[in-house]
Amino acid sequence: MIKYNLAPYPRNLYIELFSEESMSNIINKFHTINNEEIIREDFGNYAAAVLRVINKKTKEFGYVAVFRPEAMSISHIAHESYHIADFILEDLDLQYNYNSANEHIAYLVGYVAGLIDKGLKRIIK
Question: How many domains does the chain have?
Fold first, then answer.
């Protein structure tokens, strides 16, 4: 599992590929932001998924982005990056503007997508 700090936002990003071992590690390491245990069904049969989590040991908030190997494409990375940016806006009560003044969101999606791409490349090496 690859971990990135999402500074300046007080959150971490964890990137992983789907496997039985990775699912077990995620379930053992995190719980949901509602303080509930993560279950395998939370990941469904999606090509990729993002969960909002709290690290059981450090109590740090974050997001786990998990991709199936066949879903490591720019479209899936962009899709999950938007979900993460949207979660950050909601979690930190940041404003979404209903006009073209959302540069902060565009930057955040690009920033997260770059980290996911970098993390997935590190995992598959």
Answer: 1
Where would I find the H helices in the chain? 20-29, 74-91, 103-124
Q: Please tell me the distance from the alpha carbon of residue 12 to that of residue 6, in angstroms, as a whole number.
A: 5
Q: What is the pLDDT of residues 77-107, one digit of tens each?
A: 999 999 999 999 999 988 777 777 788 888 9
SS3 of 37-56: the string is ECCHHHHCCCCEEEEEEEEC
Amino acid identity of 45? N
| Residues 47 and 71 sit within 8 Å (Cβ to Cβ) | yes
CA angle 13, 106, 90 (to 5 degrees): 55
Which residue range is the domain that position 21 belongs to? 2-124
